[in-house]
Target: Initiation-control protein
Amino acid sequence: MLSRINEGDFLNKRELYDSFADMGSETKKMLDKIETIKTEMMRVIEKNAELEIENQHLREHLKELETQKQNDGQGLSKSRQNLEMLYEEGFHVCNVDNMYGTRRINDEPCVFCQDVIYGERR
Model:
């Protein structure tokens, strides 16, 4: 009977040791996973900070563009600004009676040209 007790103790000790060994390897795996998650989280936080900074710069740039648009040619598009420049140099920019590109007489205002340049602005 004494041999059975000793043999049972040995099995219990062996199981206990194996359980600790398994727990140790599982703990190591869990620590590796935690380290991987920590690394990935840091990458995401850094990327988020970069995107926030880029977003702020884009908002500032958008405000600059809006301000510039308000100050430039009273909000005219680039093509209308070009037409306005031609008109101010004394040329027709309207196509009434095929007058486009002809010189305005005495630089008199042309309602049709002004409508082409400034009409339907919204």
